[in-house]
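> example.struct
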């Protein structure tokens, strides 16, 4: 099933207005223009409906441009060394570039998915995984569903600086690590600043993905780089640092379906090890029935071993399945998009869930709720 041209145009508009606005001037501009251009928007019609989103089109253009580093369009791409700001020539140049290479763009969107592997989201996940480990009272095993290259599985190996109004900067994680992440930590009304431990003990790491990425594969690594927004070079630097760290001690990555192969992937971690299952901006690519089936699969697994689910996802497709009727976790009209950090465990099939924080889409800030 593929998305219609009108659906794609609506997605481009929404992306420009609610995701790129205030975060990526380049992508906001390109998506806004593409939404009114049937030829450019139409390049996405060959992608499966579940993946036909603006980020895929922009990643495909980015990837093709990577291979042509002397093209004039590079001047507008800071990720490739460009220093031009938006001007009257940005859109015409982008438009001609992608349409002249339409077949290459169409091939990429038909054969790839958006796999950002946004390492900054580790700063969002760390407090929730640490809370699960505290409840477990033992070192944990991590299973990331929709892992891409598995960079989030190394979250215990990164250093974090949480900037707070109440306590200044909270520094956690190993002292000697090449990768440090910064995250603004705000408190909602009535919330209490979380206690974030200095260390987190992880004994096993497994990633499950329909197309796991081997970072030794240069083309696969280049695609992940292309999925990073082109006018956010700091994200590119963090990705490169995390990738280099991961290559030294890679986790086990398993090819399989998020629902059908969940139990088999979990079985790769000894049943005596408390299991923390992580999902981060993955469920949006599943249908509603697949989302429900994944949550049901987690509940079934929780009946066989100690299990916690840490989710950093838009509320409607994830936490809503176990924590209903939370309208406050859905962005209001005109409000920037955000996700919800959730922690869920099951007791005799009954879920206990907490919405821990509202989170920015790329890990730069969170608002603690409890």
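> example.seq
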């Amino acid at each position: 099933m593929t998305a219609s041209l009108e659906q794609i145009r609506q997605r481009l508009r929404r992306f420009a207005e609610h995701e790129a606005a205030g975060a990526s001037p380049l992508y906001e501009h390109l998506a806004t223009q593409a939404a009114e251009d049937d030829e450019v928007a139409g390049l996405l019609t060959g992608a499966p409906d579940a993946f036909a989103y603006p980020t895929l089109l922009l990643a495909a253009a980015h990837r093709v441009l990577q291979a042509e580093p002397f093209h004039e369009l590079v001047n507008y791409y800071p990720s490739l060394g460009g220093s031009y700001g938006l001007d009257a020539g940005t859109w015409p140049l982008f438009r001609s570039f992608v349409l002249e290479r339409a077949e290459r763009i169409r091939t990429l969107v038909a054969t790839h998915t958006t796999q950002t592997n946004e390492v900054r989201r580790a700063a969002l996940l760390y407090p929730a995984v640490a809370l699960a480990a505290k409840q477990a009272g033992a070192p944990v095993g991590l299973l990331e569903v929709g892992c891409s290259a598995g960079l989030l599985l190394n979250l215990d190996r990164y250093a974090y600086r949480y900037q707070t109004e109440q306590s200044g900067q909270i520094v956690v994680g190993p002292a000697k690590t090449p990768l440090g992440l910064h995250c603004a930590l705000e408190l909602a009304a009535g919330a209490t600043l979380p206690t974030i431990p200095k260390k987190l003990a992880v004994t096993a790491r497994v990633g499950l993905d329909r197309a796991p990425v081997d970072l030794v594969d240069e083309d696969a690594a280049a695609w992940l780089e292309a999925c990073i927004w082109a006018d956010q070079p700091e994200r590119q630097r963090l990705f490169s640092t995390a990738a280099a760290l991961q290559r030294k001690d890679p986790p086990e990555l398993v090819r399989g379906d998020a629902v059908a192969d969940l139990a088999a992937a979990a079985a790769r971690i000894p049943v005596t090890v408390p299991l923390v299952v992580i999902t981060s901006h993955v469920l949006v690519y599943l249908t509603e029935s697949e989302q429900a089936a994944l949550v049901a699969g987690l509940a079934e697994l929780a009946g066989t071993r100690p299990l916690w689910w840490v989710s950093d996802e838009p509320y409607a497709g994830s936490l809503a399945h176990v924590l209903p009727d939370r309208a406050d976790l859905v962005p209001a009209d005109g409000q920037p998009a955000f996700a919800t950090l959730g922690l869920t465990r099951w007791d005799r099939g009954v879920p206990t869930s907490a919405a821990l924080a509202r989170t920015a889409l790329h890990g730069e800030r969170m608002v603690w709720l409890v």
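> remarks
Residues 5-111 form one domain.
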